Amino acid sequence: HKKGFIFDLDGVIVDTAKYHFMAWKQLSKDLGISFSEAQNEQLKGVSRVKSLEKILAWGNKTISDEMFENLMAKKNEEYLSYIAKMDASEILPEVESVLVFLKEGNQKIALGSASKNARTILSKVKLLHYFEAIVDGTNVKNAKPDPEVFLLASEAIKINPEDCIVFEDSIAGIQAANTAGMLSIGIGNEKVLHEADFVFQNFSKMPNGFLMSLINNEPN
Ligand code: BG6
Ligand code: MG
Question: Is the confidence at residue 136, as pLDDT, over 90?
């Protein structure tokens, strides 16, 4: 059976979620707005624009459009300064062996990310060549939890949504996968990602044979 495996990037393939957090935290501090870990969970998977809107709303702040653009640019500059130092050692546990397993099994692999920096990061950690399609923040109009990003990915790899499996570390992304009619697999904390069909702390916690059972349509 041919399936489509769609990976989120930040927090699933690489641990860039911490860099987004650091950059947003600095920006919030500069604005005199504090935000909690729980609020940070709500920023995961969410586009740059939506993230800044949320932070401003939490701090009860309104700013000019020009200031908004400036802050987004500043956040991305800081984020990119962390990315510049990244290498393959920052690939999360077992990610590459999962990609190799799927590739060798002739499965379809796509990226479904909100980030406009997705290609830069994938090439930085030398994983770009595994992906048959990349759908990212430069292609998508509606941010997660809208299913657009995953539906575009399934189209690009020509696999029906019901035969697609999504790996996600964010609440918004799990909701997007569920709405797309795909199997959702949370990577991270099961309390946070309780809406997912399955949750593993990371890929190394995924039982042997789990991926094979998905490919063979076996119940888990
Ligand atoms: C998502 C991250 O993958 O991409 C978010 O989880 C981030 O934290 C979003 O805001 C947009 O990323 P970028 O790189 O375009 O600012
Ligand atoms: Mg993510």
Answer: yes
